[in-house]
């Protein structure tokens, strides 16, 4: 008789891009922890960078110095990896239900939203409470303008600029300027 496979946890399913239950107890506890750390961060004056850096190191998967203006919100924090010299302006939200990798020298304008989370299009599946999440990768030397939204499963290439107000629904290559809703490449950066 073959051994029965060990069932996956909801967190494992979430990170594999499968349907998962976001209201499972462990995930609820993890989100509560992240909310508490975000609240502490948002209560500290932005000028007190050493205290804020310590909290970001507890929240994110990083040993880097992180500068994010308040207010900031995320789902879990531990799925966010940032490189050197990362800066996000006011109002950043990262729904990190899957891995969100941010490279070196990345800048976010105000109100940039990163959504690794998504829901089924089929209404019956959505009503059932199923959710999915897909990783997001942002390369090195990227500038994302204010009020941009980056959707689940997207990769933004190195040295790329995303124009303010864009909605990034598909991968964007290296060395380009891309704008619009949906975001599209308008020129190369030489």
Plain-language structure description:
This protein has 190 residues and is of the alpha/beta class. The protein has one domain: Hexapeptide repeat proteins (UDP N-Acetylglucosamine Acyltransferase, domain 1), CATH 2.160.10. The protein is 22% helix and 28% strand. It has four helices and 19 strands. It has a seven-stranded mixed β-sheet with strand order 2-5-8-13-16-18-19. Strand 18 and strand 19 form a beta hairpin. Helix 2 packs antiparallel against helix 3. The chain is globular, with a radius of gyration of 17 Å. The model has no long low-confidence stretch (mean pLDDT 94).
Tally of strands = 19
Under CATH, the topology can be stated as: UDP N-Acetylglucosamine Acyltransferase, domain 1
Q: So, CATH architecture?
A: 3 Solenoid
The helical percent reads: 10-25%
User: For this structure, what is the CATH class?
Assistant: Mainly Beta
User: How many angstroms does the end-to-end distance come to?
Assistant: 62 Å
Strands in their spatial order, largest beta sheet: 2-5-8-13-16-18-19
Please give the count of helices. 4
**CATH homologous superfamily placement:** Hexapeptide repeat proteins
Mean pLDDT: 94
- Our Rg estimate from Cα atoms comes to 17 Å
State the major sheet: 7 strands, mixed
The portion of residues forming beta strands comes to 25-35%
SSE series: HEHHEEEEEEEEEHEEEEEEEEE
Low-confidence stretches: none
Content-based structural category: alpha/beta
């Amino acid at each position: 008789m073959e051994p029965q496979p060990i069932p996956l946890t909801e967190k494992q399913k979430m990170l594999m891009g499968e349907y998962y239950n976001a209201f499972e107890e462990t995930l609820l506890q993890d989100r509560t922890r992240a909310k508490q750390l975000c609240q502490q961060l948002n209560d500290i004056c932005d000028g007190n960078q050493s205290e804020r850096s310590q909290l970001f190191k507890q929240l994110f998967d990083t040993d880097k110095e992180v500068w994010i203006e308040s207010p900031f919100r995320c789902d879990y924090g531990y799925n966010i990896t940032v490189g050197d010299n990362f800066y996000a302006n006011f109002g950043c939200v990262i729904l990190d239900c899957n891995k969100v990798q941010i490279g070196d020298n990345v800048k976010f304008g105000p109100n940039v939203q990163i959504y690794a989370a998504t829901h089924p299009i089929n209404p019956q599946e959505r009503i059932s409470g199923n959710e999915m999440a897909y990783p997001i990768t942002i390369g090195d030397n990227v500038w994302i303008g204010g009020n941009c939204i980056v959707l689940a499963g997207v990769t933004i290439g190195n040295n790329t600029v995303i124009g303010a107000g864009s909605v990034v629904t598909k991968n964007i290559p290296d060395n380009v300027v891309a704008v619009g809703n949906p975001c599209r490449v308008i020129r190369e950066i030489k």
